[in-house]
Amino acid sequence: NGDGTIWLVCNGEIYNYRELREELTRLTQRFERRLREDRTQLAFTPAELDGVPPDVWRRAPRDAQGRLRLGLAQATVFPLLDNATRSATRERMWRAFLSQGGSDNLRTLAALAKARRELAQQFGFESHADFVLRRRMAHSEAQAQTFLATVKDAVRQRELADLAELRAEKARHLHQSIDDT
Question: For the chain, where are the alpha helices, taking DSSP H only?
Fold first, then answer.
């Protein structure tokens, strides 16, 4: 119609491609804004931060009980997850990190998934993965899954050996039997 609008026709319905892309952009920005604005802080005692590099927590504010208050910035989260000797400390941080933005972000993710699927279907693809992969080496979700299945078989034994080694190290570190880890 001269204004640059791209109209899609699918199953007898007409869709405005620009509006669909703008909706995806709005949803993505809303999700990312909630991540940026999340001010969640977790309180840890110095003992709970055993193993975490001091640069990660040295300047952290303290609460009324003297515990260190750590936010969910990646520069804090990943060194803690990589180095904290206490599994409970790592678990608390990991759960908080995955919960950023709360239930609003879960609803936004669901809306994003639905919008992406609708966009893909309007171009004749079964899934968003098929839509994205159409111009890549895998070409489709099915081809990617087939490839991953062959890789899985090739690396399975190494994965099991790595897990056994990690369990043995954890048992040694915690002074426990390997059956208790």
Answer: 17-37, 54-57, 74-83, 87-98, 102-122, 128-133, 141-174
109-140 per-position pLDDT tens digit = 999 999 999 888 888 888 999 988 888 888 88
Looking at residue 39, the DSSP 8-state letter turns out to be: -
Q: How many CB atoms lie within 10 A of CB 48?
A: 18
In one letter, which amino acid is 149? A
Task: Report which residue type is found at 82.
Answer: D
Distances (CA, A) of 117 to 2, 124, 143: 28, 11, 18
End-to-end CA distance of the chain: 66
pTM of the predicted protein model: 0.69
Cα(131)–Cα(20) distance, integer angstroms: 15
